[in-house]
Design brief:
Blueprint: E1 2-12, E2 19-24, E3 28-31, H1 42-52, E4 57-67
Antiparallel strand pairs: 1-2, 1-4, 2-3
């Protein structure tokens, strides 16, 4: 059985490579390597999106199937 978890993908204006949230703390670190991205639940991902949403970046949820 597989569960659905989420990545937060960040598209910044002027940057052609998509970035993913790597860690959450006092500041949010991003990485371009999808394997290093933080896999989180839906509510945590939505909270992260609301925290980093501004005029220069567009965050979105990316669903990922993970083994249970």
């Amino acid at each position: 059985m597989k569960n659905t978890k989420f990545l937060v993908k960040v598209n910044r204006t002027g940057v052609h490579v998509p970035q993913y949230v790597q860690s959450i703390g006092k500041s949010i670190a991003t990485t371009s390597d999808r394997k290093r991205a933080l896999i989180m639940g839906k509510f945590a991902a939505e909270d992260t999106i609301s925290a980093i949403q501004n005029a220069r970046c567009t965050p979105e949820l990316v669903p990922v199937k993970v083994p249970a």
